[in-house]
Amino acid sequence: MTPIKRIALTAGEPAGIGPDLCIQIAQQQQQVQLVVIADPDLLRERAKQLNIQLRLIEVDLSQPPQLAEQGELFYLPVNLAEPVAAGQLNRANGLYVIQSLQMALDGCLNNTFSAVVTAPVHKGVINDAGVEFSGHTEFFAEGAGVDKVVMMLATEQLRVALATTHLPLRDVADAITQDSLNKVLSITLNSLRKQFGIDKPRIAVCGLNPHAGEGGHLGKEEITVIQPVIDAMQSDDATITGAWPADTIFNQDKLRDYDAVLAMFHDQGLPVLKHHGFGKAVNITLGLPFIRTSVDHGTALDLAATGAAKATSLQAAIDMAITMANSQHPS
Ligand SMILES: NC(=O)c1ccc[n+]([C@@H]2O[C@H](COP(=O)([O-])OP(=O)(O)OC[C@H]3O[C@@H](n4cnc5c(N)ncnc54)[C@H](O)[C@@H]3O)[C@@H](O)[C@H]2O)c1
Ligand SMILES: N[C@H](C(=O)O)[C@H](O)COP(=O)(O)O
Fold it and tell me: What else is known (predicted)?
């Protein structure tokens, strides 16, 4: 019998829908021991607001992982600074969120957890609390001492990786260098092979400028940066094509020929992915020394404690983490 795996689930921004989703997930039988990292009083209070029965069990990490029954949730406690009003951000709890991420990070690095799945955080309120934070992706990369990681969002039909993550648009062009693009493509190829079992990955690379620069008349990055990297990375073990105009590569006929599209920046790739699959997509950080998946949506403050938040993306993120943990450990 395969041993039961233990996976960390961070509940995210306490005023958002993260706690609601963790409680909803506990109503389904899971194939692994999920350990929610959150304040148990918050989970108790939110379950009451949602009118959902919940039995909370503090995890004993010295014991082998065990499965929860439906309606049960293992938790690792972390204390809120102040009580939470659902839907209302409070910067006093910004450090609580960071603490929960740090506990998950430490537990992944010391193999307490086989993976971490994250519910959404609110980047703004964490910064308001005095902590520079641009996203889980960057937080986990820095904490793991990794110089470069890749954000990829995926449904069963489409994978979109990003050459840059949470950057102001003004900084994007400067951040795309031959060196950074080379690293991004190498990480993506490696992950498609090892974590997704694709022997000869096929990647379509987008241009940065409209119409991929129109032969240099609408921007030169395709000629000076992107194309040379694509040319240099040609091999018998992969198909890398581009630079494609981003507005035409995302059509069904073209996408059939590729395992992933590499977009140059956040809002070039993610609106397409979310239009196609919001609610069923998974955010995966490639290039970390552990497995990290997440939801495809944000904190949805408007839905916290209402019962209207859908847990479909969180369940997909958990299932993806399990598949990855069962198949190939990241290298
Ligand atoms: N993984 C993450 O931590 C993550 C991902 C995306 C955005 N965010 C953060 O979330 C905050 C709010 O972002 P936003 O308002 O742009 O996006 P959002 O995803 O929170 O909300 C966009 C819309 O989708 C709806 N929605 C979101 N999740 C839903 C769900 N599970 N079920 C039903 N409806 C849902 C919301 O009600 C809202 O109408 C920002 O601070 C952003 O940075 C975090
Ligand atoms: N870029 C993500 C999205 O739009 O869904 C989101 O901001 C989460 O990013 P992190 O996983 O880095 O927090």
Answer: The active site is located at the dimer interface.
Whether the complex's predicted ipTM is more than 0.95 is answered with: yes
Domain that includes residue 37, residue range: 1-146+288-331
Q: Are residues 26 and 51 in the same domain?
A: yes
Q: CA nearest 203: which of 258, 162, 244, 269?
A: 258
- What is the per-residue pLDDT across 85-128, written as a single tens digit (0 to 9) for each? 999 999 999 999 999 999 999 999 999 999 999 999 999 999 99
| Helix, strand, or coil (residue 192) | helix
User: Could you tell me the distance, in angstroms and rounded to a whole number, from the CA of residue 134 to the centre of ligand 2?
Assistant: 9
* DSSP secondary structure letters along 193-221: HHTT--SS-EEEEE-SSGGGGGGGBTBSH
Q: Is 213 in the pocket of ligand 2 (CB under 6 A)?
A: no
| CB of 191 shorter than 6 A to ligand 1 | no
- Contacts (Cβ under 8 Å, ≥6 apart) of 62: none
How far apart CA 222 and CA 227 sit, in angstroms, is: 6
- Tell me the pTM: 0.97
